[in-house]
Amino acid sequence: MTVLNRLDWYNIARDTNWTPTYVSDKDLFPEELTCAFGLPAEAFEEYDEPYKTTYPEYVKVQREKDAGAYSVKAALERSKMYENASPGWLSVLKLHFGAIARGEYSASSAECRMVRFGRAPGMRNMATFGMMDEIRHSQIQLFFPHQYVSKDRQFDWAFKSYDTNEWAMIAARHFFDDMMVTRGAVGVGMMLTFAFETGFTNMQFLGLAADAAEAGDWSFSSLISSIQTDESRHAQIGGPLVQILVKNGKKAEAQKMVDISIWRAWKLFSILTGPVMDYYTPLEHRKQSFKEFMQEWIVGQFERSLLELGLDKPWFWDDFLREIDEQHHGMHLGVWFWRPTVWWDPAAGVSPAERQWLEEKYPGWNDTWGHCWDVITENALEGNMAKTLPETLPVVCNMCQLPINYTPGPKWTMRDFPLTHAGRDYHFCSEGCRWVFEQEPSRYKDHQSLVDRFLDGQIQPPDLGGALKFMGLSPGEMGDDALKFAWVEEVRADRIKKAS
Amino acid sequence: MSDVEILKPLKTWSHLAARRRKPSEYEIVSVNLQYNDRPGSAAPYELDPNVFMNRWYVEHRNNSPLKHKDWNSFRDPDELIYRTYCLMQDGQETYVYSLFDQFSAREHDKALTPQWAGTLARLYTPSRYLLHTVQMASAYLAQMAPASTIENCASFQAMDSFRWLSHVAYRTKELEGSFADKGFGKDERHYWEQDAAWQGFRELMEKTLVAYDWAECFVALNLVAKPAIEEGMLRLLGNVGRRNGDLVMSLLADAELIDATRHRRWVAALVKLALETDGNADVIRGWIAKWTPLADAAIDAYASAISESQSAADAAKQATATFRASLGL
Question: Percent of chain B beyond pLDDT 90?
C-alpha cells in the first residue's frame, strides 16, 4: 500500500484559519454567534480535538454502523417483540422517541453553528461530523418507531410531539433550545457537547440500552448503543474549549455555562429518564436504579472530568446529590396522575414487589411517596377512578417548565422559589432554576409557561379539556395507566392472601 | 363522551397521512423535521421571544425577501438520507483513494515538471482555504434553511466541501514529499491571503459568509460562488492538469464534480419551487446581479494565473451563466 497515513495530512486539513480583509473579523464572527468572550482567533488555535477522524474514515465507519443497526431491525421485524413487550416497555419507547428524535435534528443545526462560527478549524471539522451524526440520530430514531405507527396511535408522537404545546414538550424545547440552538458556537460546545453529551446522554443511551437488552428489545438496544458511539465522539468537541477558556482567564464564564447546562439537564432527566428506569421498565429487567446510574455516570465519571479540565464542582452539587434521591419520584407521580396530558401510558410501577424494590433502592420510599400511592391504590381498589385523575393543571416552574414538587411525608419541605423581575412575578422549583434565570434574565423573562398561557386566556375552555386540546391530545393519544390497573388486582390478591 | 372520536392508528405519520400514497423512507425521515416554524408559536425557539437568536431567525429567515407559503414542500431530487449518503460517499472515497494508491505506486508525482509542481503549490493546494469557506457557508445555510429538506441538502454539501478539502490536504502532503522546495504545506496561507490569483475568490467568499439572509446566502453561495469555484477553479485545474500530465488532478476534479453536479440538482429544484411565488424571480435576479460581478472577477483573476489564454476564463464564466440560465429565471 502506498496510501498516506491519516496523521500525515490530518493537520493540514485543520489548518484553515485566515485573516479576513474584505469584511471585518467582527462581522465574520459576531460575538452573539461565536460566544468567544472577546478572545482572539489565535487563542482558539491551540484547540486540539482528542478524537481524530477523517472524512474517508467517517463515511466508512458510519456506513458500517448503519448497516449493523438497520440489519438488526430488519432481521427482527417479524419477531414478536412488539406483541410480547410489556406495556411499560412500549411506554419507554414512546417517551424516548417523542422527546428525543426531532430534538436530535435541532442538535444538527447547533452543530452547524459550530461549523460556521467556531474559531478553531479542528472544532469546525469535528462539528461537521457532529452535524452529520445528529442528522443520523434524528433519521434513524424516526425510521425505527415508524414501524409501530400502524399499531398504536401514540407512536405518531415520535414525530408529532415537537410540533405541540404538550407540557413535557414545552419543557423539552425550553431546555434543548437554551442549550443548543440559541447559543453561540463556544456556548454550544460547552453546554451541548461537554456538559450535556459527556454527562447525560450516556445515561439515556447506555442506561436504556442495558434495560432494552434485558427486556429483549434488541432492535432498540442496538439502535441506541450505535447512537452512543457517535455521541461519545462528538461530545469531545467541548473538552478542549474548557481548557482554552480556563487558560485565557475565562474560567468563571466556562464554569457558569457548564453549571447552567448540568442543572437544566438534571431537571429534564428527572422526568425523562428517572420514571423510565425506576417505574416503567419491568422489574425483572432493571439493571440498576436511576440513582445508581446517576451516581456512576454523573457523580463519578463526569465529576472527575470536570475537575481534570480545571473546573470546579457546580455550586449546587449538594442540592443535586440530594435531588437524585428524590426528585424523579415526584415527577413520576405527577406524570402518572396527569396521565391524560402525556402521549404515552405511564406504568405506575407500584405493585407490591415493585414497592419492595423501591424501598430497597430508596430507603424511606414507603414513608414518603408510598403514602401518596397508598391513597391512589385505595381509590383504585374501591373503583373511585375519578379520584385518581386530575381536574386542574399543576404549578410549573418558570425555568424547567416542570411541575413543582417535593418529597411528601414527615419531612415535607415544600417551598416555592419566587422572584420578581422587572415587575413580573416568577415561580421556580428550586434555587438552581432561579439561579439560572438570574444569570441572564433577558433569555427567559418574556417566555410564557403553560400556566402563564392558561392565565393569559390562550387555553379555552379554561379547564382540563381545553388544556388537552391546547396540547394537541385527543382520545386515542392521551395516556392512561399502562397496565390498565392490573397492578391493583395484585394488591387485592395480596391482601386476600394475607387475610386468609 | 360517547360522541368523541377516538383517533385510530394511521399507516404513517399524521402529517404525511393525508396523501394517498405510501411515503418513501426519504419522506418518513426527512420532511418537516424542524420545529422552529410552528404556526402560532410566539417565537422560533422556546425562550424569550426577544432573545438574540429568536430575533436573528425572524429577521434572516422568516422575513427574508424570498417568500414561499410552504418551504417544507421542497424535495431533494436525489432523496438522499444520511444512510444513503454514507453508503454512496464511502464508495466514492474508495475510488479516490484507489487512485491515490495506484498513482503513488507508479510514482506519478515524480513525473510532473517542477514548473507544474510550482503551479500546484500556488494555485491548487491553497484551495483548502477556499473549500473551507464553502464548508462554513454551507453550514450557515443549513442552520438557517426554512425546511429540513433544504437543511439536509446544505448539510450534505458542507460535508462534501470538507471532503474536497480533505483531498487537497492529502495531495499537499504527497506533493511535499516529491517537491520539497515548492512550499507545499507551508506557503498556502500566504498565497490565499496575498496572491492576486486568489483575492477574487477570497473577497467573494468572505462577503458570502456575511450574507446572513438565508435566501441571499443560498443565491450567493449556490447560484454564484460555488459554480464559479467549480468551473473557474476545479474544472480548470482538472483540464490544465491533464495537459500537464497530472492525471491525479484531472481524475480527482472529475470525481469531485460528481458532488457538484448533485448539488446543482437540488439547487435547481429549490429555485423551481421558489419561482412558484410571484416576485421571487426578481429577488433572485437582483441578488445574481449583485454577486455575479464578484464571481466573474474571481474567475478572471484565477484563470489568468493558471492559463495563458483568456478563453479559459470566458468558458468558465459562460458555464456558470449557462447553469443559471437553465433555472428558468
Answer: 95
Q: What is the pLDDT of residues A94-153, one digit of tens each?
A: 999 999 999 999 999 999 999 999 999 999 999 999 999 999 999 999 999 999 999 999
- Which B positions 117-156 lie with beta carbon below 8 A of chain A? 128-129, 132, 135-137, 139-140, 142-143, 148, 151-152, 155
User: Are B136 and A116 an interchain contact pair (Cβ–Cβ within 8 Å)?
Assistant: yes
Contact B135 A146 (CB under 8 A): no
For A253-278, give one letter per residue: b (16+ CB within 10 A) or e.
bbbbbbbbbbbbbbbbbbbbbbbbbb
Could you give the CA distance from residue A128 to residue B136 in angstroms, rounded to a whole number? 9
Task: Spell out the residues 6+ positions from residue A241 whose beta carbon is closer than 8 angstroms to its own.
Answer: A47, A123, A186, A189, A190, A194, A254
CB contact under 8 A, A174 and B28: no
Kindly report the nearest CA distance between residue A453 and chain B, in angstroms: 11
CA distance B65 to B73: 19
Q: Are A12 and B169 in contact (CB < 8 Å)? A: yes
Q: Residue B14 and residue A142: Cβ atoms within 8 Å?
A: no
Is residue A138 within 8 Å of residue B33, measured between CB atoms? yes
Residues of chain B with pLDDT under 50: 1-2
Are A417 and A132 contacting, i.e. CB atoms less than 8 angstroms apart?
A: no
Asked, for residue A8, whether it belongs to a domain, the answer is: no
pLDDT of residue B1: 45
Q: How many domains does chain A have?
A: 1
A136: left (phi over 0), alpha (psi -120 to 50) or beta: alpha
pLDDT of residue B3: 62
Contact B10 A448 (CB under 8 A): no
CA distances from A362 to A267, A324, A333 (A): 19, 10, 15
B29 and chain A: CB distance < 8 Å anywhere? yes
Instruction: Please give the share of chain A, as a percent, with pLDDT higher than 90.
Output: 83
Residue A108 in domain: yes
The rounded Cα A464 to chain-centroid distance in angstroms is 26
CB contact under 8 A, A477 and B192: no
Q: Which CATH architecture has domain B82-325?
A: Orthogonal Bundle (1.10)
| Range of the structural domain that residue A73 is part of | 32-499
The answer to whether the CB of A371 falls within 8 A of the CB of A409 is yes
How many beta-carbon pairs under 8 angstroms link A with B? 251
Q: Is the pLDDT of residue A205 over 90?
A: no
Q: Which CATH number covers residue A254? A: 1.10.620.20
Q: Choose among B71, B70, B45: nearest CA to B58.
A: B45
Interface test with A, best of B33, B34, B212 (most A CBs within 10 A): B33
Tell me the three cell numbers of residue A294: 446517576
Q: What pLDDT shows up at residue B242? A: 96
Distances from the Cα of A327 to the Cαs of A272, B42, B157, B228, in angstroms?
12, 30, 44, 58
CB-CB under 8 Å, A128 with B9: no
SS3 A388: helix
Tell me the average pLDDT of chain B: 96
- Selecting from A16, A139, A163 the residue whose C-beta is nearest the C-beta of B129 gives A16
- Residues 282 to 321 of B: which have CB under 8 A from any A CB? none
Choose among A4, A23, A151: nearest Cβ to B206. A23
Assess B231–A contact: CB distance below 8 Å, yes or no.
no
Residues of A in contact with B193 (CB under 8 A): 18-19, 21
Give Cα A426 to chain centroid, integer Å: 24
| pLDDT tens-digit series, residues B73-108 | 999 999 999 999 999 999 999 999 999 999 999 999
Would residue A94 count as lying in a domain?
yes
What mean pLDDT is predicted for residues A242-247? 96
- The ipTM of this complex is 0.98
Among A83, A149, A372, A192, smallest CA distance to B15 is for A149
